[in-house]
Design goal:
Elements lengths: L2 H27 L3 H38 L10 H26 L4 H22 L5
Helix pairs in contact: 3-4
Length: 137
């Protein structure tokens, strides 16, 4: 491990210790265990996707080290307009899928479901624009 990675791991450890200390002081010593239960239920999706993100970052870091040792960190992708069409189909269907799930679960699509679908659409569309802005015409 390099010094930079050791410093980052050390800072992550300090952050975790501070968060655990705060949790102990606030939730357990402060007799707020019901709030702790509600917080943990709310943070479960973040924990799941955060764990998956950490695993993906770890795998990509290993691949990056291997490619750096080979002297090649570039990725060349050749896409055609059918691929661009598929990306647009995916991006525009995301809000419809989110709305359909909300409808199937609750029987209606509420304002929060609509806003969630809009945010997902805007993020995905912004990523599509950023990705395809690199194309050579």
């Amino acid at each position: 491990m390099s010094a930079k990675e050791l410093i980052i791991d050390f800072l992550n450890l300090i952050f975790v210790i501070v968060v655990i200390g705060f949790a102990i002081m606030y939730f357990i010593a402060g007799d707020n265990f019901e709030n702790f239960k509600n917080l943990m239920q709310s943070l479960a999706p973040f924990g799941l996707f955060g764990l998956l993100l950490l695993i993906a970052l770890r795998v990509n870091r290993e691949k990056m080290k291997k490619r750096e040792s080979e002297g090649n960190t570039d990725i060349d992708i050749h896409l055609n307009f059918l691929d661009k069409f598929k990306v647009e189909l995916f991006v525009f269907s995301l809000p419809m899928v989110i709305s359909a799930i909300a409808w199937a679960v609750g029987g209606k699509v509420g304002l929060s479901d609509f806003l969630s679908a809009c945010v997902v659409f805007l993020l995905a569309y912004a990523f599509k624009i950023w990705l395809f802005a690199k194309e050579d015409i």
